[in-house]
Structures are given as structure tokens and as C-alpha cells.
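Deliverable D4.2, example record:
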Amino acid sequence: MANSSSSVVDMDPDVARRLFEEGATLVLLGVPQGTELGIDCKSWQVGPRFKGVKMIPPGLHFLHYCSVNKPDCGAEVGPKTGLFLTLKPREILLANWDPKEEDLDFSASRNEEEVSRIRENLRDLDPHLGPYPYEVMRKWVSLSDRVTEEVAKNLQPLTGRICAFSDVIPEVQLTHTKDRAEQPRNDTACQSMKEGLDRLPKMKPREGTELRFSVIPQKSYPPGATPAEITRCSMDLSYALETVLEENYGQQPLDLLGEMQFAFACFLIGSVYEGFEHWKRLLALLCRSEEAMRKHKELYLGLIAVLYHQLGEIPPDFFVDIVSQDNFLTSTLQDFFQFASGPGVDGTLRKRAEKFKAHLTKKFHWDFDADLDDCAPVVVDLPEGITVD
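Output generated by the structure prediction step:
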């Protein structure tokens, strides 16, 4: 790890002492030099003496890494792999690098004798352990405080690994020559893009590697709904939201915010675009559920807090690019602010939404009270000489 000692130097002595006594330790043996490895919101390039991370605050963390091919000869960085870990005080978690799979193998942690041996020799190992980057702890907690161990376990793939690029296989396994011969031939020119795409084999995620996000109903209305009900449920997505809550979170509706944070972390830190797409779907579902907003006060107060920290971690120009395509963010939040100011909404929630709206207007220069055009966010025109930080 490069410059890893600075975290301890800059840390409050009482905090450093407490983490030294109570913090968990990740012992990661055999990680090749040059590997990009990180925990939570910070990453490094592994040096020749690296053997793990110490002084990790107990709780949920996201370990992520990219294998590097021949770091001394123009390194080629592989796709990022990550996993959520819930660490206990003074816990030692042991993993060995598997060069064949280019992955960390945590099976050694189940060997109590091996873990005990590591614990006894921890003092000798200490110079090879980089301290947890405590300066990012506050940021990490603000992005993950709703993600419980159970939520993370239920959402991450059965393999336990979250990969930036999906591991896919053909939907139809053409193991015999006869099967392959019956497939459409590709030796003639395609007449259209659609024809070319249709000729490609249909792929699906390898079993156990897919993220297990909540399924959002394709139809936002109940079976047998009348035309009037279909119209109402299409304008107010509360039925679809209640379906998601009932099927996935039962008596714990606030855990949906944990799923939203999980998806966002997968995208922001794990480079998983699917996480961003699911985050967008959850945000649209929550923001366009007017009846649910009157019913689930705590859920929506929590949503504002979650969004406040999430939007603070992404440069404003990122959303300009996204919004320029389909105006997603501004139109979705505009619906949210409109519903939050409606009749029957709790007064505390209404005031919190007004403050959040003012914060976003100041930060992004967006006017949520104006009609949005089809292409770009609305920018507030400020008097000459006045700027917004």
C-alpha cells in the first residue's frame, strides 16, 4: 500500500489506540505486487511487502480489487471484483491469493488453527499491514449505514463476489455438431443492425453470479384492474412499491433504503453499471408513489438522508450527462417534491423535502418548479456577480 502510514499519523491518538485494540484485521497473503486493492471508499496499488489491512472499524465494509497482469511490463488491469464483509471487534479474517482464479480465497479463515497461528504472530506481521484509511470512514458510513449484514447477504451473488463485468454463458448450450448446424448461418452480410444482433447467441449470467436485487413489477397495477385503476396506478406507483416492500422486506420497509445504498455502492465503488440502473429504478419507484409517501413517513425521511449523501459523492457534471439523455434525475425529483408538498403529507417530511429541494437547487443550479424541457436540466439564472458554492 502506498503512503499507508499517513492514516495513523493524522488520526486522533485515542481513536488510533481504540482501533488498535478493537479493530479487525484482514490478512491477505500472496497478493501480487501492483494489484489494485481497496476497502470502502479508498484503494491503493499493492507493494512488495503488503500482507493485509489492520485497525479496521468493526461493521460492514466493501473489499475490492483488480488483478494486474505483469505490472513491470505495462500492466493490464483486470475487471474489479468486490465483496461485502461484516467484521467483528478484534476479528482476523485470512485469505490467500489464488493465482489461477486471480481471486482471494477465504477458505483459510475456516481453519481455526491457522487463524490462531496468525493471531500469535500478529506482532511480526504488523509492519506488513496497512492501516485502515480512517479519513474515509465518515463518508463510507454515510453511504452504507442502512445496509445491514442481512441485507448485504441477501442481495450479493451466491458466489459472494460482485464483479464489474458479468460472467455470462449462452442460454442454449450447443454441445453437439448437429445442434450447431441447425443454428442460423453467419456467412452472409447482415441487412440491418437488428438482424446482426439477432444472430448473436443469447447470453445469461452464470448461475450464482447475478446480483439478487428486488424484482420491481413490470405492471404497476393489480391483476384485473379496471382502466381507471390502471391509469391511477400508472400515475401513482404506490401499488408497485407496496408490492416490493411486502415481497422483500415485510415488517422492515426501511431495509429498502439499504438496498438502494447497496446498489449505489456497487456502482460507485464496484464499477457495476447494473447497480446504477437498479438505483434509478428504485428512486423512480419511491419518488412517484404519492399515497405511499403519506403512509411511510420514516421511509421517506430516510430517503432524503440517503440521497443527500449519495448525490454529494458524484460530480454535478455526471448528472448533466445523464439528464441530457432522458431528463431522469430532475424529472423524478420534481415529482417527489410535488408529492411531498401535497395534502396529507406529514409536516416534518414536508419541511425536510423543502430544505432538500433548496439544497439541490443551490448545488446543481436546478429549478424544480419550472417546466423541464426534453433535453437538459433547468439552470437557475443568477444575477451578475453572484455565485453559488
